[in-house]
């Protein structure tokens, strides 16, 4: 019987260690967009699709609110999204997309920040 409780205790310790390891990995895996995966953050910007076609296109208010929310998570988040494979596959013109925060009049945007070969206006 003592061996059963020792086995149970060992199993509990192993489960605790595995759960702790999984939690630590999740925390360490938090990227530029926090716990939001880059592709999910990119998909959230779908209201911005028309604004990425032309620098003179009107930026929908829903787009501006999504971009502003990404800046609140982290200024690096928008850059990570713009440089993501999903955005490249969608054929988004980064030279136009990078102008959206300015066109939305987002005050807390990091003007002059480099994003790949582009600079945030």
From TrEMBL:
Question: Which domain of life does this protein belong to?
Answer: Eukaryota
Keyword tags: Signal
Q: Output the GO biological process annotations, alphabetical, semicolon-separated.
A: systemic acquired resistance
Query: Which segment of the chain is annotated as a signal peptide?
Result: 1-29
> Which Gene3D superfamilies does the UniProt entry name for this protein?
Plant lipid-transfer and hydrophobic proteins
**Domain Bifunctional inhibitor/plant lipid transfer protein/seed storage helical positions:** 18-115
Note whether Signal occurs among the keywords.
yes
Entry's Gene Ontology molecular function annotations: fatty acid binding
A Pfam family matched by this chain, by name? LTP_2
The record's annotation in PANTHER family points to: BIFUNCTIONAL INHIBITOR_LIPID-TRANSFER PROTEIN_SEED STORAGE 2S ALBUMIN SUPERFAMILY PROTEIN, LIPID BINDING PROTEIN-RELATED
Protein name, entry field: Bifunctional inhibitor/plant lipid transfer protein/seed storage helical domain-containing protein
Per the UniProt record, the source organism is Nelumbo nucifera
